[in-house]
Amino acid sequence: MASSAAPARLPRHPAERIGGLLSLVSALLWLGQAAFIAWALADLLEGSGARALWAVPGVFGIALLRAGLKYAADARLAVAADAVVSGLRARIVSGEAATTAPSVAGGPGAVAALACEKLDTLRPYLMRYRRARLRTSVLPLLILAIAFWHSWAVGVVLLMGGPLIPVFMALIGWAAQEASEKQMVEVGALNDLLVDRLAALPDMHLIGAGDRIVDSFAEASDSLRTRTMAVLRVAFLSSTVLELFSALGVAMVAVWVGFSLLGVIEWGAWGATLTPFAGIYLLLLAPEYFQPLRDLSAAWHDRAAGEAVLDELALWREEERPALMTSGTAPVRPATPLSIRLAGLVLRRDAREIAYPDLDIAAGDRIAITGPSGAGKTSLLRALAGLERAERGAIEVDGAPLDGTTADDWRARIGWMPQAPHFLNRSLRYNIGFGAPLGDDVLEAAGVAPVLETLPRGDLTPLGERGAGLSGGEARRVTLARALQAAPDLLLADEPTADLDDGTAAAVIDGLMRFAEAGGTLVVASHDPRLIARMDRRVEVPS
Amino acid sequence: MKPLLRIAALIWREDRRAFLRGLALSVLVLAMGAGLLGLSGWFITAAAAAGLAGTGVLFDVFRPSAVIRFLALGRTAARYGERLTTHDATLRALARLRVRLLQSTLRKPYRALERLRANAFLNRLTADIDALDGVALRLLLPGLAGGIAILLAAVIVAWLVHPAIGALIGIGYLAVPTAIFAIGLRRAERPSRQAEAGLQALRSRLIDLIVAREDLAVYGQLTAARTRVEEAAERHDTARQHLQRVERRAGLGLDLVSAVMVSLALGAGILLVQAGSITAAQAAIGTFVALALAEAVAPVQRALSDAGRMIQAARRVGPEVEDNTVPEGVPAAPSALPLKVNGLTYRNGADLFEPVSLHVAAGETVALTGPSGSGKSTVLLCVAGCLRASSGTVRLGDADLTPAALGQAVVMVPQRHALIGGTIAENLRLADAGASDDMLWDVLRAVALDGVVAGKGGLRARLGFRGAGLSGGEGRRLALARALLRRPDVLLLDEPTEGLDSVTAAAVMAGLRAALPRAAILMAAHRAAEIDAADRQHVLRPARTVR
Question: What is the H or E stretch that residue B344 is in?
Answer without folding.
Answer: strand B339-345
